[in-house]
Protein 1
Amino acid sequence: MSTLPSAPHDGSTQSATRTVHAVCTLDCPDSCGVLVTVDQLTGRATRVQGDPAHPVTRGFLCGKVAKYLDRVYAPDRLLYPMRRRAGVPKGPLAQGREAEAFERISWDEALAGITAKLAATAEEHGPESILPYSYAGTIGQLGYGSMDRRFFHRLGASQLDRTICSSAGGAALTSVYGVRLGTVPQHYAHAGLIIAWGANIHGNNIHLWPFIEQARRNGAKLIVIDPYRTRTAALADEHLAIRPGTDTLLALGLMHVLFRDGLEDREYLAASTDPAQAEALQAHALLPEHAPDAVAAVTGIAAETIVRLARAYGTSLALTGRPAVIRLNYGIQRSEYGGTAVRAVSMLPLITGSWKHLGGGLTLSTSGAFPFNGKALQMPELMEASPLGRASRVVNMSQLGAALTTLDDPPVKALFVYNSNPAAVAPNQNDVLRGMARDDLFTVVHDQFFTDTADFADYLLPAPTFLETKDVQGAYGHFFAQVSNRAIEPRGEVRNNVRLFAELAKHMGFTEACFDDVEDDLIDQALTTDHPWFAGITRERLEREGHAALNLPKNADGLSLPFSTPEWFPHGRVELFPLPAYMAATESRSAPAAEEFPLEFLPRKADNYMNSTFANHAGHQHMEARNTGVLEMHPDDAAPRKIVTGDRVEIFNRRGTIKLHAQVNRQVAPGVVAARLAWNKLSSGQAGLNRLTSENLTDIGGGATFYSTLVEVRKA
Ligand SMILES: Nc1nc2c(c(=O)[nH]1)N[C@H]1C(S)=C(S)[C@@H](COP(=O)(O)OP(=O)(O)OC[C@H]3O[C@@H](n4cnc5c(=O)[nH]c(N)nc54)[C@H](O)[C@@H]3O)O[C@H]1N2
Ligand SMILES: Nc1nc2c(c(=O)[nH]1)N[C@H]1C(S)=C(S)[C@@H](COP(=O)(O)OP(=O)(O)OC[C@H]3O[C@@H](n4cnc5c(=O)[nH]c(N)nc54)[C@H](O)[C@@H]3O)O[C@H]1N2
Ligand code: SF4
Ligand SMILES: [Mo]
């Protein structure tokens, strides 16, 4: 374990408090720099604030993390290792009563018990019968994936394909551009038109907002394309309530008008791609099925609006002197053909050449800009030293239910969950819970709280908040690398992911030196690369300065403009093939399944929680109260079902039923209903939204399809 580092913003040692530079490790594009005030005498954190020196954080935190100390010091934090009491069946426990199902044990007992069981399982069923399950409880490089991967690689456990969030969009963006990166967030201030496309900026990416406001003060317009009237939509100049899953067609409709009206930048398009591909795209876009009337009929957006949007997009630079920019986010790729949708939308700035201008282009994720040495951190070559002697099988995390209930050869016999709450967040919850309840499944859960998943644990291990551990981090919404210093001593007997897996390795008898690495070693390894974008960025520098800008290539004007010049294209050019074509999802209003289940369900994220994180805190619940336990539906759908606001309603499909209270309003258009994610055990009947979602995968990237879900609704 590293010692408490000297903080870059250390106050005088004489003073009663000191300030430590940390990073918010939650799964959010903003990766905020956080200044933690710590009382020198008690060692207790007394305040968290946004780092005013960080160019994107700019001194403020979101409402969720402003209350982070409520989480760090919550009386119900998990602080000690625990083991399920003999005879207590696995399954949902009432909140506040969970501890009764477990007994406190020592770390030695926990480590010995877990490794003995894992070793026996590997011996009897083969190591691939062990499945690690983790996602983004922390997106710090170390916490997200370092020692844990080494441990499971060496063990020969199944590998997890981490697809639940962004793999469709990531693979799609990479298939076009060769890399995941996009417009610099600060440059949004220079845009003349901003399109938020499947992006709830004000709810999920609040640090982009001030730059958008700056652009709007200079006359820029903000247009939101989202089937739900988000906070962002309510604050925008215009909200286009697109029908879910039809974004590919809208993008093609915009291309149609751009080419038809001669608004394309021929030179730029020709320079960035193969001319034959550019011609093929133009011919494809100009097909009659992509004309505004045809597109309007499917997307629900009026033909004249499509024409107006395309013209505004194509003429922004000419008319305002400022380019158009698209904040594309992951909303559009959580549907069956979401990969194609991302490919289609991401081609728009290539057609208009808006990449060339300050404030133009598109952002989906900037994560590909950070050349962290993932191979050094995760050491996949350790799989060869495992009893398997080869790469182990890969299990898609978006099909956990199927993995636990149907996978064979070998079946999953041990599940090790950390950084995630799959009982609440994984799709097809019925199968997930049925699988987790299996008597013959051994389950370990490492978390900060008694989550829904913890209710199924054989062993429960206490995990740190980001104040209690050290890490290094990039971002998926900006271009600054940061070190998060440990601000406070770990509470109770909390151990971080690095230390947990290093100790498990020791108890397993793994003798490789890599299991001796501590945080500082791992940070050094993560930053060890020849890649020029990390030149000069070292642990010492990040510890001293808090954050450092990547050394991105500059264009002739000295600006970092992704894709402004050919040197930005990793393959020398972009790839437009296969040309994006619209397909209706099997769970959408245009599909046969809609006869029985006619409503498109959006099981969305809560503005005041982070996926299922924070759902258990009174302060956060208070902020989210208006939307809790609520199904939002349009009057046109409520009336024929004789439903009025406040009615208890059943939302159901073949996979299950949940109960919520109807809120009849115009946040959604006819045909769409929406609700928000929380913990199952805090939901009516302990049934979370994911009872209704499927394990169908996206067309590209094997992602989850939460937003392709058909339901019917009736009065309970
Ligand atoms: N407050 C808050 N912030 C968060 C999170 C949170 O839970 N709460 N989660 C974090 C995580 S894990 C992530 S990945 C990011 C995600 O941030 P976003 O990428 O913004 O993801 P979502 O909120 O899933 O989707 C964005 C919007 O897409 C809309 N949408 C759904 N289907 C469609 C469609 O077919 N077409 C279009 N055009 N729009 C559609 C949704 O209604 C939603 O408002 O946010 C992070 N930030
Ligand atoms: N219906 C529906 N389902 C969804 C989504 C949706 O929009 N709608 N969104 C999907 C998306 S985009 C995502 S990213 C996933 C998110 O799914 P998850 O990544 O599972 O996210 P959380 O629910 O926030 O759970 C993270 C857990 O990690 C724990 N944790 C935090 N830090 C640490 C640590 O250092 N160590 C350990 N061991 N644990 C830690 C937290 O306490 C928390 O319980 O959910 C997906 N599921
Ligand atoms: S959740 Fe996002 S916006 Fe909030 S503090 Fe963390 S990084 Fe910043
Ligand atoms: Mo996510």
Protein 2
Amino acid sequence: MIDLTKDVLKKHYNISEQVINLYEEALGDVTNVFKELDAIREFNQIKVLKALQEERISESHFTHSTGYGYGDIGRDSLDKVYARIFNAEAALVRPHFVNGTHAIATALFGNLRPKDTMLSVCGTPYDTLHGIIGINKDENIGSLRNYGVNYKQIDLMEDGKVNLKEIEKTLKEDESIRLVHIQRSTGYGWRRALSIEDIEEVIRCVKNVKEDAICFVDNCYGEFIDIKEPTDVGADLVAGSLIKNIGGGIAPTGGYVAGKSEYVEQAAYRLTTPGIGGECGSTFGVVRLFYQGLFLAPHIAIEALKGAILCARIMELAGFEVLPKFDEKRSDIIQAIKFNDKDKLINFCKGIQKGSPIDSFVECEPWDMPGYDDEVIMAAGAFVQGSSIELSADAPIREPYIAYLQGGLTFEHAKIAILIALSKVLKN
Ligand SMILES: *Cc1c(COP(=O)(O)O)cnc(C)c1O
């Protein structure tokens, strides 16, 4: 870091000499890890480039359909580009998915029927899916449970691995299991993300017992972190958000589903209506941004990952427990930091907010967010509201006070914000 940069950080951002020294030590440690990531990034960039070229994308695909949106070639070709990237038969990429939760819900509702059972094999799924499944409550909100879809779960083992023996046993005992839900990312849990190899192992185990069970992967935060996606190793269906990795920070909203045609089609029937599926839905000029975001996504996802890795190392050097550690293999962009202290957690999030390009002057506070059980604090100063491929930190306010950091469109920005956040934590 040049002296002028240090001067600005100290004078303008109040960052201490101690934090700058920690940064320089951390950067030295992470450099080798970064090299491997650049190789993944290069491979995925080629994957995206090839897909765009093979579908012969041209300016005429930057459509601006209105009304029913019949024959929107920009939309239809984007589905094909995604299908190529996921090595899948089909995909459904739409601005009409309001978020990742909606894309996942659409995949689940589209493919489950009354008396079917959904089996989660990574313990309790991500918080916003609880209402969809009707996990703990029997509220009458049109949950899967309300429609007579049963739910079972198998917790991860002590070491964070999936319990294959239990999966095998449960599948043999319960004929009604129609869909196996695999969550790649950590969500709000102190656990490792499942690697592509872990996912492959689960799928093999499931298919051995029950060939026709749908292996569904919640792929949120996982895209372009590996050279393979879950669909490369046998997943039947995946879903995710466009304001995370795969939107490249450019997509202003949306989600996707990809996988076997029959399952993607069922999801499309749920998103719009039976019989109409993916053939309607105007895209009002947004597809160009989806294409451009996708093109940038392999680069941006690795920028975010580098920010997470730097964060892991510097926070560890500052004395905090982190997961994953800086040199562990990763499968999502999330960095968890355990503070064991409510104020430190809140100060960390406030520091990330202070380092944001947008709303840097805002103090973020814990609040009751829709879809979450505990109060949540969210630091997000993003160009796209709530975008978590942009630098963001959030935490449910519960012991042991873990913050989840993710995103960062540029490594440089993530670095500065992390230094501000750490300074705030150490000062208090
Ligand atoms: C982000 C996320 C979702 C979906 O969240 P949205 O905020 O609705 O996009 C689902 N599952 C996991 C694991 C996630 O990280």
Protein 3
Amino acid sequence: MSDPQTLLRSRAWVDVDLGALRRNLRRVLNAAGPGAAVVPMIKADAYGLGAAAVVRACRAELSRDELWGFGVAAVAEGEALRAMGWPGPVTVFAVAPPGEYARAAAADLTLALSDPEAVRGWAAAALASGRRLRFQTEVDTGMGRAGFPWERAAEWGPVVAEAAGDLIAWVGCFTHFHSADELDLAPTDAQWERFRAAVAALPPAEAGGPAGPVHAANSAAALRRGGYGAGLVRPGIFLYGGAAGPGAAPEPVASVRARLALVREVPAGTTVGYGATYTSAGAERWGTLSVGYGDGVPRRLGPLGGCVLVRGRRVPILGRISMDAMVVDLTGVPDARPGDVATLVGRDGGEEIALDEVAARCGTISYEILTGLGPRLPRVHTDGAGERAGA
Ligand SMILES: *Cc1c(COP(=O)(O)O)cnc(C)c1O
């Protein structure tokens, strides 16, 4: 019988180490201080690594008190989480389109709201659905993309409480930091002070104000300032193996791999790729990898000096990356064979190409590399030393 995991690893794929993810999760929680809880952010299919498996890993790792709920960005992601059987809080942190309120209500999602009109619309959805729905308010302290203005909380607080009435429950209030991963934490401290001032100006819970947690921290703020002591943190990237600020690095979680499809000896003067931008100087040994920008490998990685690992050695990418294939120079790896596994991101033997290294080389961030990995790459999840997840 052919092993399904072998089939998944036939062309190109992403290995996802859920054991490492769980250890990263534990580190964030520990950094947030005793009694803290987390809302793992699993938007964009858990940053491209597979939300269903990540949800299972979080539920396996955390106690009920430690796992406050999950965070998503789209109503459809919340519906998917319900389909996976998660019964607890699901908060849609991005602004939900009013046209999706009925669906959000049916899935019992919690919406993050940013203006009184949205509060009224969500209350109307509660009335129509016959359920008491939940919402949080976002406070804009400098991110500028959503949220009630921090400096006018005394104005909008009572308006929100009034519009919510008994129809929808105000279960939390949060802000989002724009620079928590930068060396200087002064801008983040200033955002936190704005947020505290706003929260202090809101009506108390007895008068219809927020009755749940007040929270702010992404991965970087959870790790560096203990989530500002808020007791609830919202980590994303660190769980998935991306650095969050200048502190200690996470354990790598995602490895991008591809098979060597062809290995050939080429004479001097052989060209490679669109535009024939590279020509062999002498006799060289080239390997074709069955992966390309159609899988989410950034096309600019080639000209920017990108490498891959083959048999534990770094080899350069030659010429332009195609949609479905790319060529590497195996001259320095004479033992490389078709079928060998090449590593574009991750470890092989004693060598590593870190996710953040690839991102930096491409002039972007780890988030964009991970969420850009395409659906053509199977996500192969393992939990622990070679043990298969979900088996
Ligand atoms: C994505 C997101 C986070 C997580 O941020 P990371 O930098 O990935 O830790 C936290 N809060 C909100 C509102 C988000 O949208």
